[in-house]
Amino acid sequence: MLTDFWPLFGLRINTPRLELRLASDDELADLAQVAADGVHEADRMPFLTPWTDGSPAERARSVLQFQWRQRAVWRPDDWSLPFTVFHEGRPLGVQEISGRDFAVRREVLSGSWLGLRHQGRGFGTEMRAAALELAFVGLEAEECVSAAFEDSHASLEVSRRLGYREDGVARQTRRGHVVVEHRLRLSREQWAAHRRTATSVTGLEPCLPMFGLGTPER
Q: So where does this one cross the membrane (predicted)?
């Protein structure tokens, strides 16, 4: 079975409404269609890389390429796990966590996107909470960091609701103009104080060596 060699396909995170897991290629096609249908309004750009500026077909292909690339370049000391977020069996978007030298640093970075028609229903908070459960409980992370532009109000509100604190700013170039990016940081203690979402993680133990944790694979 595929999970014998790539156990991440057996990893699941479940919340009251959502399931986060790696998608099959057929499911990735559905996810790509979500991106093709729109991730934000045309007059906004909540991402540093303007991958949503292209045509619907280009947006769809970029989703597929990104998902395949992250699997191909995975290393235990430098990994990125872009979960597809499912609601009632259909994909809504992506919740990603990544780590570099995680076994030593115990720090993860989170990022996400959500289809435009699925926004405003609390899914963004719920899927981030799911990823934090994996990070802090499953992987025993000590801190999680995130970032959002100053005009990405929904993303910043999700971070504040979950207990993140300001961790400085950076000046970035977006569509040829300077924009301020806010860095945010969440410690294990802050997360525990704001932990509200009932979440279960299954299928993690066989994956631990892929994160640089547990018994090395043979």
A: none
- Predicted TM-score of the model (pTM): 0.93
How far is Cα 59 from Cα 16, in angstroms, rounded to an integer? 30
Q: Range with the lowest mean pLDDT among 14-23, 51-60, 120-129?
A: 51-60
Q: Which of 91, 83, 207, 190 is nearest to 139 (CA)?
A: 207
Amino acid identity, residue 201? V
Q: Give the separation between CA 31 and CA 20, rounded to whole angstroms.
A: 13
Answer yes or no: are the C-beta atoms of 13 and 19 closer than 8 Å: yes
Of 130, 155, 131, 110, which Cα lies nearest the Cα of 17? 130
3-state secondary structure of 198: coil
CATH number of the domain within which 10 lies: 3.40.630.30
> Is 217 a member of any domain?
no
Indicate the SS3 state at residue 1: coil
Query: What is the side-by-side order of every strand in the sheet holding 12-14?
Result: 165-174, 177-187, 143-149, 107-114, 90-100, 78-87, 18-21, 12-14, 200-202
Instruction: Report whether 11 contacts 211 (CB < 8 A).
Output: no
Find the range with the poorest average confidence among 46-50, 52-56, 152-156, 167-171: 46-50
Tell me which amino acid residue 177 is: H
Beta bridge partners of 143: 107, 187
Q: Which residues are CB-contacts of 9 (< 8 A; sequence separation ≥ 6)?
A: 2, 3, 21, 22
Read off the tokens for 181: 């990016």
* Structural domain span for residue 171: 2-211
Is there a contact between 23 and 31 (Cβ–Cβ < 8 Å)?
yes
